[in-house]
Structures are given as structure tokens and as C-alpha cells.
């Protein structure tokens, strides 16, 4: 009976609209209160976890070690680092777009200059033809009046030639100015290129090959890899002073990634190639690795029952790389590698 009366009030009674409005307002207030309580609770939870400090700016994580474990786990970057990285990416994208627009503008300007020079050249040829015709007609006539007219026309032609030369010189100067502007903008863009800073040091516990890979990556990013790798072509037309500065910069990069023990050993060495050669020798003498011992390790390796195939392959490949890095090592044949792999998995 109460349900029937309730339906009647809502659907038919003249006061039902007022009652419904009151109910809806109360419901909306309850929902708003619940929503605000939830937001306050979420905010406190986020502050407790340290996602956004209460009165501090977002913390920016720097010097992230880009390792294999980092690549596999792919940790979520803090908000500050993510925002900074996105801003840098947008800045580089804007600079690339500006460079493309500048290239288009320079291309169009060059085309216009070439068209102007071509038009001027054609006009000069026409004037030369007219001049030759006037010279022929001048031979046939003896009148002083005609001679004076011819002189005037020659002066006009000379004036036009001078104007054409001025236009050509102006065009060349504009081309040089545009080229100078382009080089300046390219240098500015290169100086603002996004760099990845890595923190790595060669210690007694670290792997030399991994350290060397980090070093090559940093040198390549700074266009200095040719200083230590003879297979990389060096920039042309470098002065002796510039070559010496590039070597000094590479040496500075190397010693900044050495611990005190290794730094002392190459303290008086200036050539980056000799420094790396000595460091490789020190590491080999420390671990006392020979190609015979590594070959024995290759034939003794066994795949564990609970080991993933990818992990085993990584271990197997690391031994092969270690063998190939040994001095005076006889290269492994495909048959030897297959035999060792078969023996390790059976």
C-alpha cells in the first residue's frame, strides 16, 4: 500500500515534483560529499607514497643507468623526469621543423637568385647582339651624327654591363649570407641536441667490454669516435690544434669514467688509444684469462633445468665473446660452436 502511494505521489500528485527535486538535491549533495572524501583520501595516499610532495616541486631523477635489467623491467619514470623528457623531445621536434622550413626557404631563395641571374644573362646577350648590329651599321655610315649616336649607345651598353655585374655580385653575396645563416642555425641546433648522460666507471669488478661499449656510445654521441677507432673516418680539413683538442677531450672523457686505481696507472699517458690499450692489458692480467681457459669454460657450460633459453643463450654468447677478445686466440669454427652448444643442452 505504501509503495502504491509512493508511485502515486511521484507520478500523479501535484506535489510529487517538489518531493522528487528535494530527493535529487539530497542525492547530489551526498554524491558530491562522497566524491570530495574520495579525492581527499586519494590525495593523502599519493602524498604518503611520495608521488607528489606536499610543498615541493616534483623530484627529477637524473643519471639513469640504461642497463639490460632497466630495459627489461622498464621502470616508470617519476613525474618530474617524464615532464622534463617530454619537454626536451618537443623542443627537438620544434627545432627539426624549423630546420626543415629554413631549408625550404633557402631552396626557394636560391632558385629565385638563379632565375634572376639567368634573366640578366639573357638580357646581356640581347644587348651584345644589338651592339654587334650597331657596330656593323657603324662601318657603313660616315656621318658624325651617327657616330655620336653610336657612342651614346655604347655608353648605354657599358652601363647595362656594369649593372649586370653588380647584380651578379649581389646575388653571390646573398647566397653566402644564406649559407652562413644556415650553418649558424645548424650549429645552434647541434649544441641543443638531446644528450643522455650515463654514469659508469671502470673498476676491478666491472666488465671491460661493457665499459668500452658505454664509452664508444658517448664518443659517438659527441662525434669523437674516430679518435680511438681508426675504422671511423675523421672530419676533413682539421688543423693540428683542432686534432690536439679533440684528443684531449677524449682523454678527459676516459679518465672521468675510471676509478682512482686505474687513473693512477695511466696518469702520464696522453694518447687515448694507448690509454685504452693499457687498460685492456691491466684487466686481462687481473682476471688471468687465456684463450685456453675460456675454451675449456665453453665446453664445460651446461644448461640448468630451471634456466630460461634466453638466459642460457646469453651466457653461451658471453663466453664466445670473451674467447674472441683474448689475444692470439684461434677463431672458433661453426662446427666447434655447434658441438659445444649441443653438449651444453644434452
Write a structural description.
The chain is mostly helical and 346 residues long. Among the domains are: 79-126 and 156-192, no CATH class; 208-287, no CATH class; 291-345, no CATH class. It is 72% helix and 0% strand. The protein is built from twelve helices and no strands. Helix 10 runs antiparallel to helix 11. The longest helix is centred in the N-terminal third of the chain and has 62 residues, at 79-140. 5% of the residues are buried. Pfam families: Retrotran_gag_2 (PF14223). Residues 24-50 have a biased composition (Basic and acidic residues).
Summary tags:
mainly alpha, disordered N terminus, 346 residues
Mean pLDDT equals: 76
Low-confidence stretches: 1-19, 51-55
Which band does the percent of strand residues land in? under 5%
Overall 3D shape: flat
**Strands, count:** 0
Number of helices: 12
What oligomeric assembly is this protein in? single chain
Structural class, from helix and strand content? mainly alpha
| Major beta-sheet overview | none
